[in-house]
Amino acid sequence: MTAPSAFPHCPALPPPLPMLIAAAALLLAGCMSLAPSYEAPQAPVAERYAAEDLGRADGGVQAAALAWRSYFTEPRLQQLIAQALENSRDLRSATLRVAEAQAILGIQRADLFPTVAATADGARGRTPADLSPTGRAVTASQYQAGLGLASWELDFWGRVRSLRDAALENYLATDEARRAVSVSLVTQLANAYFALRELDERLALAQQTVANRQEAVRIFTRRFEVGAIARTDLVQTETLLHQAQSLAAQLGQLRALQLHALSLLVGMPLPELAQPGTLDDQAMATELRAGLPSDLLLQRPDILAAEHRLRAAHANIGAARAAFFPRVTLTGAYGTASAEFSGLFDSGSSAWQFMPSLSLPIFDGGRNRASLDLAQVRRNLAVSDYEKTIQSAFREVSDALAARRWLGEQLGADRATLAAQAERARLAQLRYDNGSAPYFEVLDAQRELLSAQQQLVQTRRALLASRVNLYAALGGGSAEFATLPALATLPSSAAAAATAPSAP
Predict the structure, then answer these.
(1) Global pTM?
(2) What are 6-21's pLDDT values in tens digits?
């Protein structure tokens, strides 16, 4: 007995499956989108930076287009930044998150296209006599082969395309976040390096002061032994020495901690930095152009990332709105079927099946309404986050500009103060040696001199930090990180995860 066809109740003239797909594609060409039109919110900041913050003619180079190697000119610092970009775990994680978002985008994009699969199967079975319509036992076979179309949604209302657009914007936001991490890593490392060199100079000054005061204690001890000075003068000299020793120990601890922090940023031990160095006041000779606050919208990766997240929220509203409308899906198959394997491809063995499905939501307990409310709230949150990101960026630039101006003036004042304190210490020592002043005057002058020396080094480093922060606040070097870095430097497992094939 011949087994029934796997595709029962089919018309005699089945249209081929490719014709069905072509017809559906024509229908999709006129699909609409229910996502709200995107309009960037008005930037909630002033149109220009305050004139007192600029402090000078706003000339110089645009920071975003200036590569970090062109801005940070010190060779040792350049080497550390290159090592950090290669070894940073934070940057590695950010890069892998981009690859993750790209894979999600590929999955979401695949839903726009039908899933067609080749199928082939065979079956043979026996029906006992008491179950057979003829009253006799029947053994039957069935073979079939063909192409099958899984449930493919005709995206009339743009639901699938809205989800695809949201995934695309999330991918772009993740890539901008990677660029922001790169810029942040460069500037964090530069600040950490300058902080280390500041401590080097301060520690060297403290150690030199300790050596000078040890010699002073030796001399005063000899004078006291021969009765040339009172014990009070010797005790005051020893006090001055102990204060310098305490400061040197404190600075030595701070330097060790700063070296550990710098090693963490670079991602590897840095034994060569155990040797002290000095601050290079010309480490960043390039002047930066602040431009207008509106320029930040195109230069800062964190602002661009927030805008992409806002666009994704708009697309999700479109998907939530489309859920209120009917959903049409297509399922079908086209192939050949026969009761005998040898007759599978004989004339007249073709078989097909076409099952369109229409689903119209009538009652869902408020699920679709709640989903739309959620999408709109998340859009409003994205707007708030976008505006806050712009405000934070504006403040960072304004703070860096103000620091650049006022620290420049403070540096001049600190240098004048140091010169005056050095002269005061010299004169106090002369007055004491001539018996015209008590040693307390010398003690106070030397203490103030050491404080002025330390303050000058701190101000120099603060001025360098303000220039680093201005470079970061203006999106410095972000154009250099516009494309994904090569993943060859990642471990094999991480590289495999990042380069896994995604749907086209």
Answers:
(1) 0.81
(2) 334 334 334 454 455 5
